[in-house]
Design brief:
The chain has about 300 residues and is of the alpha/beta class. It contains 10 helices and 14 strands. The C terminus is likely disordered. InterPro entries: AAA+_ATPase, ABC_transporter-like_ATP-bd, ABC_transporter-like_CS, ABC_transporter_ATP-binding, DrrA1/2-like_C, P-loop_NTPase.
């Protein structure tokens, strides 16, 4: 196990930032850690990095305690924050070299040059001239120039344009083929869906869902578009059918996974000209959890 977090609790005064949090990352897996601002993602990551002491529970990386053994752990991990602050009077290249030296690992100059080229990065400019995206590139190049067993990435593509985001995704997949592990905290759900094997959803300091994307898809609804020239009396009242709208001959609705067979049986009574389905996305799952309270449960 690369990351093993269980029963993790952290309070800031009377505020419960983390309540019995469980997160695991196995070797060679990419795990997406998602939730809105203030949900507890950054607090969990700071505990993993040894920057905060937990109040209760277990937080281990490589079987070592994240706080007590932080120095040893950091020899084998790379970390990219979502808001990178740099020394304004140093060049980007100088800061990359400094970050690499702090890792204490030998790096082939060809690897660093390759990453600079892939991210279209000019290392000769002073850091004070860099945009947010370029500051992010400094951290990414430094992190991926060294060979680490685990990459902890906290909103790593913040400020990057879509082309650079694709380059980042390709880079992460390359590391996975080498047997590396990744914990990716991101608010870009499409990015998590494309990259991650497993997903952990945190809400108000609690883990509300976790597992492989394949396993979690059954927790949300399948989108249907049905075209028929006749009305379908009673359809809107079927169990497991939600958000029914009709536009001319087309019906748009969602169906709970366990009710798909019964809904298809009902539809079979009518002359259907066209039927389309769309698999649920990670965004569907995420939004179902975060909108349920506002809509009185769904």
């Amino acid at each position: 196990m690369m990351i093993d977090v269980s029963g993790l609790k952290k309070n800031f005064g009377k505020v419960e930032a983390l309540k019995d949090v469980h997160v695991t990352v196995e070797k060679g897996r990419i795990v997406g850690f998602i939730g809105p601002n203030g949900a507890g993602k950054s607090t969990t990551i700071r505990i993993l990095l040894g920057l905060l002491r937990k109040d209760a529970g277990k937080a281990e990386i490589f079987g070592l305690d994240c706080y007590r053994d932080a120095v040893e752990i950091h020899k084998r991990i790379s970390y990219v924050p979502g808001d990178v602050n740099l020394w304004p009077n140093l060049t980007g290249g100088e800061v990359i070299d400094l970050f690499i030296d702090m890792q204490g690992k030998k790096v082939a100059s060809s690897r660093k040059e390759e990453l600079m080229k892939r991210f279209d990065f000019d290392p000769t400019k002073k850091c004070r001239t860099y945009s947010k995206g370029n500051r992010q590139k400094v951290a990414l190049i430094a992190a991926f120039s060294v060979e680490s067993d685990l990459y902890i990435l906290d909103e790593p593509t913040s400020g990057l344009d879509p082309l650079m985001e694709r380059e980042f995704q390709a880079l992460v997949k390359e590391q996975q083929t080498k047997g590396k592990s990744v914990l990716l905290s991101s608010h870009i759900l499409s990015e998590v869906e494309q990259l991650c094997d497993d997903v952990v959803i945190i809400r108000q300091g609690e883990i509300i869902e976790s597992g492989s994307l394949k396993d979690l898809r059954h927790l949300t609804r399948t989108q249907f578009i049905v075209e028929t020239e006749t009305d379908m009396p009673g359809f809107k009242n079927l169990p497991g059918v939600y958000d029914v709208t009709k536009n001319e001959e087309k019906w748009h609705f969602q169906v709970d996974h366990e009710q798909i067979s019964s809904v298809l049986s009902f539809l079979g009574q009518f002359p259907i000209a066209k039927l389309e389905t769309k698999e649920p996305t990670l965004e569907d799952l995420f939004m179902r959890h975060y909108e349920s309270d506002d809509k009185g449960g769904a």
